[in-house]
Design brief:
Strand order of the largest sheet of chain C: 1-11-10-4-9-8-7
Strand content of chain C: 15-25%
Distance between the termini of chain C: 19 Å
Oligomer: heterotrimer
Chains: A mainly alpha, B mainly alpha, C alpha/beta
Helix content of chain B: over 70%
Structural class of chain C: alpha/beta
Helix content of chain C: 25-40%
CATH architecture of chain B: Up-down Bundle
Structural class of chain B: mainly alpha
Distance between the termini of chain B: 48 Å
CATH superfamily of chain B: Phosphate transport system protein phou homolog 2, domain 2
Shape of chain C: globular
Strand content of chain B: under 5%
Number of domains of chain C: 1
Number of strands of chain C: 11
Number of helices of chain C: 10
Number of domains of chain B: 1
Order of helices and strands of chain C: EEEEHEEHEHHHHEHEHEEHH
CATH architecture of chain C: 3-Layer(aba) Sandwich
Chain lengths: 404, 233, 266
Amino acid sequence: MEQRLKRRYAAERRFRLIGLGAILLSAGFLALLLFTMVSNGARGFTRTEVRLDIDFAKSAIFLDPAALRSANARAALAAADIQGAVQKAAEAQYGAQGARLLSDTAWLKVQGSIEDDPSILTRTATIWLPAASPIDVARKGDGDPEAERVNAQLDSRDALRTRLNSDFLTVGDATDPAAVGVWAAFKGSLLTMLVTLALAFPVGVLSAVYLEEYAPRNRWTDLIEVSINNLAAVPSIIFGLLGLAVFLNTMHLPRSAPLVGGLTLALMTMPVIVIAGRNAIKSVPPSIRDAALGVGASRVQVVYHHVLPLALPGILTGTIIGMARALGETAPLLMIGMRAFITTPPGGFTDPATVLPVQIFLWSDEVSRGFVEKTSAAIIVLLVFLLAMNGIAIYLRNRFERRW
Amino acid sequence: MATTGHTLKAFDDDLNRLRASIAEMGGLAEAAIAAAMRALVERDGESARAVVAADKRIDLLETEIETLAVQIIALRAPMADDLREVVAALKIAGVVERIGDYAKNIAKRVPAIEESSNLKPLSLLPEMGRIVAEMVRTALDAFVARDSAKAVQVCERDRAVDDFYNSIFRTLLTFMMENPNNITPATHLLFVAKNLERVGDHATNIAEMVYFAASGEHLAERERGADPTRAGD
Amino acid sequence: MVEVEKMEMPAEAAAPPKMRASGVSVWYGDKRAIDDVSIDVGQEHVTAFIGPSGCGKSTFLRTLNRMNDTIPNARVTGRIELDGDDIYASNMDVVQLRARVGMVFQKPNPFPKSIFENVAYGPRIHGLASGRQELDAIVERSLKRAGLWEEVKDRLAESGTALSGGQQQRLCIARAIAVDPEVILMDEPCSALDPIATAKIEELIHELRGRYAIVIVTHNMQQAARVSQRTAFFHLGELIEYGETSQIFTNPRVERTKDYITGRYG
């Protein structure tokens, strides 16, 4: 008797330890992932800036301040060759290779300063411009010897500083890693998710309602149920092929648009929502239905006033899972062509766009060292987006659950 | 007729105890009547005193039966025929107790006629006593067996008892008119006859209760014998 | 087959029956659950259905408001009338029927909403109130009639599921009353409650008696005896005996009824 008791306690202890071990292992991997990402990507959010002193009065910028206030501002700015002037100023300050110290799009900052304060054209100003990628990488400790040397040199002259990369979240893709941003991809993801949600959620929920409440129990509905369950397990690239064949080749929808991406992902997400929805509806106790019927509610009223509100937490959970999966999908979107080089964020649902996972994939393919940290930074942005989405859904779910 | 037992066997046990107590009480009352009549005829004072003493047992049984019946009603919630049977048992116990009292009363009169000599009317009384004792036995048998047909038989027998009573009444009156010395013993005998007639009525009451318990309906108003108050005309 | 024993109804019950079932049978697929039952439900009394488990009393109760429609392979034959109209006719609106014939279930099942919403839901979907004030009045009246008003009038916004079992059941009764039914069907309403809550519900049934025709299914014979004026005994899907409650429990006519109520069954 004593022996049995001891053995039982030992077995329980072992079981608890194994469970704890499993959790620690999973948590460990998760922590490792986060740590790696953050340590790599944190640097992506900062950039090196080079100081440039420009004497606007003596520079080659011919610009009438008055013209900036008129309707021809854009044309005037374009004609002023600010880029050339910046290049000359850099060479003047740092020597023949001076222009190479700055990033390709650095002159846009000068243009921005001029637009903000036209009076700057009459004097000398000190503007901090984003450095070129090699300098940036070298400053962060990973550059080639040549760049390191330049870095040290500039540093001794107090010509370098490290600041938050405010452009990373506001501009689109670019060839120069120092100038890239995730905003285009982010907006693309946002639009695609909106399309997916708008299609998959209503269709999925209504299908679940129909299958559970109205459909007769016969061979056909069994077949449908099996089909939906299988659909949820189909590899996502198949949906990409489907999208390619149907949406692009047959329906001739615009390639690389969030509309098409959203449609494809909606096809993928809908089965998940239907399955979760059916389970949630099944778990509503029949006593509630009976009570509502007993008071004289019609079937539609029973579903919409009683069953759906109670099933909503479960449905929302299924939706979260489906949408999270859709957010991270790369393969199907590659198939329908959302892999373009997108510099400007998409204006609407039919403009060419890309999504965050695809952007990450493309950047990870790049040769230049500067893209390494940007890739990790983009991954962090994706994770934050995911967390935010989950957070909203969990908040909604709790709000509905708390009411009862 | 109760064919199958209750699902709760203890309920059956309780009802059986009740019936057994009623049967015992009835047996005692029946024996008391027979003993009292024998003591009367043989003018045996000793036996008479024994009858009087034995009445205590009958009274005790009545309280036992009452307690048991109330307990069954509280604890078993009897329905339909079970309920009627328990209520009937309660009432029957009271009636049998009174029958026992009548037997005791008869026994008490034995000393009063002990000294008297030949009493002619005395010969009729034993037959009457035998009939009423048999009625009591039949009525109680009917109760235990839940037999409404038997109960009806008892009611019919009462006619004979009433007739007996009327005839004894007339005989005793004549006896008293013959000789004033006879008045005292004759009056006692008159009371004895009256007691026996009452026992017969009570036996009939028992039979009516048994009929209701067994069938759920009441017996129609029974025919009675000729009105004895006019017997002296 | 045993003949149905119908009592000669006393003169005071000469009013036409509120509901009348004639030759009703219920099939679940090929299995017959109710076999040719004919019974009247009176306007003024409480009718009790008693019988052992599985005898069909709940199934028969559910045919009276067509709750069996929700079961896929259930089939009902025969005729059931409410005030003379066949309730299984194709032109009878089930939703309207269930507003006229309400139901209270075995396990209290208030909606997971506030107490007010629970009672107000029925009147709202049937359009019985033309404004918030009227709705308030209906809710108050229903809760008062159900004997729950005093206990909850200060907390109408609390969830209905936070009440005790007995209160929940009274809430369900208030909910049924709120749509102003003509008949209330109760399927073993007290079987999940303690004796005190049960007694309160029985008293409530007594108070509701004249206003609604009430049919109560119960497996507790004492409750049927306490609460009803007419009792029907079901056995294996058949109606064995139907009569005045006092007669059924003191002198039943059919042997099977007697065996059941005296505890000799089985």
